[in-house]
Design brief:
The protein has 254 residues and is α/β, with parallel strands linked by helices. It has one domain: 3-Layer(aba) Sandwich (Rossmann fold), CATH 3.40.50. The chain has nine helices and eight strands. It has an eight-stranded mixed sheet, sandwiched between helices. Helix 3 links the parallel strand 5 and strand 6. The longest helix is centred in the last third of the chain and has 16 residues. The two termini are 26 Å apart.
């Protein structure tokens, strides 16, 4: 990804393009580069794409939770002076987007979720990877994708470094507990924000039934599937992901 990280005040983010703002929300182990395809494509379509670096490991322990991340997003939107925002979140990022939309619906014009937590919290994994066990962590990272080759050495190394950082390990577990506490099943039926759900048919982290339940509970949602795809469609099938989102935004006149 060619875009440089901008540092302003307490925010670090990438930004590209002009027009309707699309804010991308990365997941727990997800880097900003996971959305390179989105960042390259949508500025050409008249959108301003922004990817803030979420304070996953930077807040005090008592503030390391989904609600505080949603409030951080509110402050970022206000700092940038944005209105009529489209949120796009993967995994934990989808959960943050959902909770933010519930708390601050007037800020958000549309929501896009892919492999989102918020209903099924195995999105945080079935037990935290063993520290120091590189092969185990490599296998876990590969399992996130339908095609294990997508889990490059760079991705595995980043996850390995994270799980071997004691402070990050403790905070990751705190976030997992927070995600369980902030289950959205009771909130979704009253959330009328137009929502595009894009899901991998082979997602083993947040299985297809999770996508169906999101679609069932959200009053104004559309569900789209990507074949031979795991937990991160925007990484594994970036062209198809962009085509689906493009068509949805055009249909909804966003």
């Amino acid at each position: 990804m060619d875009e440089k990280l901008i540092s302003e005040g307490k925010f670090k983010y990438m930004e590209k393009g002009e027009g309707t703002p699309i804010i991308i929300l990365h997941g727990l182990m997800g880097g900003l580069s996971n959305f390179e395809g989105v960042m390259d494509h949508f500025p050409k379509k008249g959108y301003k794409v922004l990817i803030p670096m979420l304070p996953i490991y930077d807040l005090p322990m008592l503030k390391t939770n989904v609600k505080q991340f949603a409030r951080f997003l509110e402050k970022f939107i206000e700092f940038k002076g944005l209105t009529d925002v489209i949120l796009l979140g993967n995994s934990l990022g989808g959960h943050i987007g959902l909770l933010h939309t519930k708390l601050f619906p007037e800020m958000i014009k549309a929501l896009v979720i892919t492999g989102s937590s918020g209903l099924y919290e195995s999105a945080m994994g079935d037990g935290y990877p063993r520290r120091g066990d590189y092969d185990f962590i490599k296998a876990k990272a590969e399992k996130v994708f339908y095609d294990p080759k997508v889990a490059t050495k760079e991705i595995v190394d980043e996850v390995f470094a994270t799980v071997n950082d004691r402070n990050k390990t403790i905070k990751t577990l705190a976030i997992a507990k927070s995600a369980i506490r902030h289950n959205m099943s009771d909130d979704l039926p009253s959330m009328n924000t137009p929502t595009c759900i894009i899901w991998g048919e082979n997602d083993t982290v947040t299985p297809p039934d999770v996508a169906k339940l999101f679609h069932e509970l959200l009053p104004d949602s559309d569900l789209h599937w990507i074949k031979k795809c795991g937990h991160a469609p925007m990484m594994e099938h970036p062209l198809e992901f962009n085509e689906i989102l493009d068509a949805w935004l055009e249909k909804r006149e966003f």
